[in-house]
Design goal:
- The chain has one domain: P-loop containing nucleotide triphosphate hydrolases (Rossmann fold, 3-Layer(aba) Sandwich), CATH 3.40.50.
- Helix content is 49%, strand content 16%.
- The chain is built from 8 helices and 8 strands.
- The strands form 2 sheets. A 5-stranded parallel beta sheet has the order 2-3-1-4-8, with helices on both faces. A 3-stranded antiparallel beta sheet has the order 6-5-7.
- It is globular.
- The two termini are 19 Å apart.
Length: 224
């Protein structure tokens, strides 16, 4: 148990700050971050064999088929284990539904994964619409910015181009919120007897959300 790979799952509505918090947490813990959104965008950017199958779902603001996502995640875990030792993994929006949750459980023994700590970052719908309507993403490093944070159309970190995501149009945002509400409901039923689900208020300053998440991780992985 002690030597198993620690797992953290960050859930929340689109725009809840999962990516930002996963990045902060990865730096603090030295865990590897796996974002299914980044995996999908990388496939499309690299024009891989999977890209043509993924683009229609991405542009419609709908989740990609589980078979594709599960394969991408497992391949990423294999890659990480082959290239370096893994202290832990932070999953950003994976598993997305019960089928993916079953898949993660099914490969846990194979890859030596511990039972996950699950954190739901809760943000009101009104705030989500505000956040997503004004965010930009770097096409090179995938870092996300609010429009007010950058003065040019270049990423301050890597000089990649900053663009509005195709699924950040208001109509698609509302569709995604509906999808995520269903996801939340299903996950709460799936994990109803699980003692490691924690809700964190995401409608706060980034630093405060990060502190609240770290308090959960510290008390469960490292003791107070």
């Amino acid at each position: 148990m002690k030597n198993k790979i620690k797992i953290i799952i960050l859930f929340g509505d689109p725009g809840a700050g999962k990516g930002t918090q996963a990045e902060i947490l990865a730096k603090k813990t030295h865990f590897n971050r796996i974002s299914t959104g980044d995996l999908v965008r990388n496939e499309m950017r690299n024009k891989s064999a999977l890209a043509k199958d993924l683009i229609p779902f991405y542009n419609a603001g709908k989740p990609a088929p589980n078979k594709i996502i599960n394969n991408l995640v497992e391949n990423k875990i294999k890659e990480l284990k082959q290239n370096s030792g893994i202290k832990g993994i932070i999953f950003d929006t994976f598993p997305f539904d019960n089928e993916q949750a079953d898949f993660l459980a099914s490969i846990s023994e194979k890859y030596g994964l511990n039972k996950p700590i699950i954190i739901w970052i809760d943000v009101p719908d009104k705030e989500i619409l505000k956040r997503l309507g004004s965010r930009l993403i770097c096409t090179k490093c995938n870092k996300i910015f609010r429009a007010s944070e950058v003065s040019l159309d270049k990423c301050p970190n890597c000089q990649g181009s900053l663009e509005k995501r195709a699924d950040d149009e208001e109509k698609l945002i509302k569709n995604r919120i509906k999808v995520y509400k269903k996801v939340e409901s299903e996950h709460r039923k799936y994990y109803k007897d699980y003692n490691y689900w924690f809700d964190v208020n995401g409608d706060q300053k980034i630093e405060k959300v990060s502190q609240d998440i770290w308090s959960v991780i510290k008390s469960n992985f490292y003791g107070e």
